[in-house]
Specification:
The chain is an alpha+beta fold. The protein is built from 14 helices and 23 strands. Strands 10, 11, 14, 15, 16, 17, 19, 22 and 23 form a 9-stranded antiparallel β-sheet that branches. A 5-stranded parallel β-sheet has the order 3-2-1-4-5, with helices on both faces. It has a 4-stranded antiparallel β-sheet with strand order 6-9-7-8, sandwiched between helices. α1 packs parallel to α10 (about 290-300) and α6 packs across α9. The radius of gyration is 21 Å and the shape is globular. The chain binds adenosine monophosphate and glycine. Adenosine monophosphate binds near residues 118, 150, 153, 191 and 282.
Length: about 425
């Protein structure tokens, strides 16, 4: 079968690498892709926002499945339009993608379905937000309601910080994403990410991971899209997984199905393990980045078969996803300046040496300049390794990092520190 993969990040490189291993695959296309994805797929110049062009391409190339990697085209309704034309799609339609596209949508669904999450209020102007703040203690969490690339969340420790956060949101600091704000009670605990394939009311666990959001070692400094991740997260026991499916993920899938807008794709639940039990922080309607590389390293099943079963609504009778017992760990190499303005254009070399150590280097923000590979974005590479323990995976990932020549880049040297301290 021919497959079209939409996206261009480390997540899509990891998906392309795994899809390419499937015996069901005939030809893989990627739009727009990146130089790493080009090793697995033919890159095509298609604008995912031009749904008509995507449909025409799928017809011309007899595409049997479209895999939508990032959230923006999902929230934009690309899946709906492809499905209307009879194409099979991995990824949710526009309305169920609101689980990621609108924090208010998710919070309302949680209230309706009795799903544990932080107490919240939504306000669409400054005065209403100030009034709502009075119902919350400190610290308090203030979020832009819409998509803000993981950056629209401010944890205010003082009343002054809360006022400043509201200034920023209502003065357009997050563009349209900040037209309304969600104010939330601050939850205390350890965060963990849980992934599940969902097709209507069927939920199939796809592993756990933890990422490092802060740019600096010891989890300090500004937030990023993620500087590294590992899987599995030992804190997320099988017992917890069952509880999260029962109390959070299954009721979500049921609520969407009951509304006539069933979810189809991968559901990424960001969870807080609080003293009262697991609570939902947020949903994403896609694989995480950089969580996807660690999940793909551990996945033993045929990814294409799983995605097809999900897209066809046959997940209930399909083989369950199987993940290796080993640990995977990925280190993000970013361009200097990230998460501010990254220095792009600096050279990258010796990736083959890095991979000769047994690791896999997934490309995120890279480009070709002539025959040379250069940095083309904030997060540039996901250097990923497997190990019998998380400590071994960590050592293997850093051996590969050290083989890479990327003077314009940097990485954290402590990815996985908490898990290594816990597990050794
Ligand atoms: P979100 O974009 O909603 O995932 O928020 C980004 C990050 O902010 C989360 O990963 C948490 O670290 C933190 N966060 C969000 N909401 C809360 C909350 N209610 N309590 C504590 N931390 C939160
Ligand atoms: N690593 C966080 C995310 O993909 O949203």
């Amino acid at each position: 079968m021919n497959v079209l993969l939409i996206g261009s990040g480390g997540r899509e490189h990891a998906l392309a690498w795994k899809l390419a291993q499937s015996p069901l695959l005939n030809k893989l296309y990627a739009a727009p892709g990146n130089p790493g994805i080009a090793e697995e797929a033919e890159l095509v110049e298609l604008d995912p926002a031009d749904h008509r062009a995507v449909i025409d391409f799928c017809r011309r190339q007899s595409i049997g499945l479209v895999v939508i990697g990032p959230e923006a085209p999902l929230v934009d309704g690309l899946a709906d339009n492809l499905r209307t034309m009879g194409l099979l799609v991995f990824g949710p339609n526009r309305i169920p993608a609101q689980l990621e596209g609108s924090k208010g949508f998710t919070k309302a669904l949680c209230d309706h379905a009795g799903i544990p999450t932080a107490r919240w209020a939504r306000a669409s102007d400054r005065l209403a937000a100030e009034a709502a703040l009075e119902d919350f203690g400190l610290p308090v969490v203030i979020k832009a309601d819409g998509l803000a690339a993981g950056k629209g969340v401010i944890i205010a420790e003082t009343a002054e910080q809360a006022a400043l956060a509201l200034d920023m949101m209502f003065d357009g600091g997050f563009g349209g994403a900040g037209e309304s704000v969600v104010i939330e009670e601050y939850m205390e605990g350890e965060e963990v990410s849980f992934f599940a394939l969902v097709d209507g009311e069927t939920v199939r666990p796809f592993g756990s991971a933890q990422d490092h959001k802060r740019v600096g070692e010891g989890d300090t400094g500004p937030n990023t899209g993620g500087m590294g991740a590992y899987s599995p997260a030992s804190i997320f026991t099988l017992k917890l997984e069952r509880r999260v499916i029962k109390e959070i993920v299954a009721p979500t899938a049921q609520a969407l199905a009951a509304d006539g807008t069933p979810y189809s794709g991968i559901l990424y639940a960001g969870l807080m393990l609080t003293a009262e039990g697991p609570k939902l922080v947020e949903y994403n309607a896609r694989f995480g980045d950089p969580e996807c590389p660690v999940l793909m390293m551990r996945l033993e099943s045929d990814l294409l078969a799983l995605m097809l079963a999900t897209a066809k609504g046959e997940l209930a009778t399909a083989r369950k996803p199987r993940l290796a017992k080993e640990s995977a760990l990925t280190v993000v190499m970013a361009a200097k300046g990230y998460p501010g303005t990254p220095e792009i254009g600096s050279g990258i070399a010796h990736l083959a040496d890095a991979e000769a150590t047994g690791a896999k280097v997934f490309h995120a923000g890279t480009a070709k300049s002539g025959t040379h590979l250069v940095a083309a974005g904030g997060r540039v590479l996901n250097v990923t390794a497997l190990g019998a323990t998380v400590a071994e995976a960590q050592a293997a990932a850093y051996r590969a990092v050290d083989a890479i020549h990327f003077p314009g880049g940097f990485c954290r040297r402590d990815i996985g520190w908490r898990e290594v301290a816990r597990k050794g």
